[in-house]
Amino acid sequence: MSSSQALVTPRRSNTSVTIINHNSNAAIVAASQRISVFEPYPMRDTIQHFCEKHLDKIKTYMENVSERIPLPAKCTIEENTRAKKMAKLQFGCDGRGEHCLYSRTLFTMRSRNPRVWIHFMFLSLQAKSQSALSSRHPAVTALKYCWDILKCENKPFVTLVTSAFPCARDQEAVVNELRAAGFCDVFEYQRHEPDGRGLWGCFLCNHPERAVGFLHDSQPVIEGQLKEKKGRWRMFRRWRTRYFTLSGARLEYKGT
Question: InterPro entries in the record, alphabetically (predicted)?
Fold first, then answer.
């Protein structure tokens, strides 16, 4: 996977910053080892010092939390016309099987708890790293940028990430958001053999045997018709019917 990136997406009516929460340990370690010309050792800051001191606790905490709460692949801060800011979260499927429901798309939801999600994403970055990351690491900098845009609770980023880990109440709040958005209807957490790694996979990645009968049946699974009005001028518009058939892994239609 590629290293974490920050993308700024200009929009007419909002501002958004996207965090791509996929990283490789090699890139993380390399970026965190910044050497000062005046010091023979890598520079450290408050965030790095805190995480270095509590790295084992962070790893243990995230290992337990990841079984209940998936981590977003992308987090975008949006501002609408009423100047209200929300976090748009996008989740990918870790399974990536042959019949994956989200092989080309991401599951999207909006959250009213950006503080908790950003804190989780920060802890996840640290937990996946072999050594504590500093505030100068690109992924940490991007999360800080998101937090600064939110201006949430008038609390600086360093205070957020060095505070107590999200409590049971915060965890329950984000789990309820996931349930309300329908995430738990599509995804579930499973440990896979032989390494025993836990993954958040979609229904067909976790249960590929269920796809066989649906995708390889020669009989049409769904048939129907859709009527729509076509025509450049309103007075000359006429109804047009499209007949569609969903069979196997294809969607076919013909018009009249």
Answer: Melted-like (IPR039888), PH_domain (IPR001849)
Q: What is the DSSP string of the chain?
A: -PPPEEEEEE-SS-EEEEEE----HHHHHHHH-PBPTT-SSB---HHHHHHHHHHHHHHHHHHHHTTT-PPPSEEEEEE-TT--EEEEEEE--S---TT-TTSS--EEEEES-HHHHHHHHHHHHHHHSSSPPPTTSHHHHHHHHHHHHHTGGG--HHHHHTSPPP-HHHHHHHHHHHHHTTHHHHEEEEEETTTTEEEEEEHHHH-THHHHHHHS-SS-SEEEEEEEEE-SSGGG-EEEEEEEEEETTEEEEEE-
- Residue 38 in this model has a pLDDT that exceeds 50: no
Q: pLDDT (tens digit, 9 = 90+) per residue, 114-153?
A: 999 999 999 999 999 999 999 999 999 999 999 998 877 7
Q: Are 70 and 91 in contact (CB under 8 A)?
A: yes
Q: What are 35's strand-pairing partners? A: 42
Per the confidence metrics, is the pTM higher than 0.85?
no
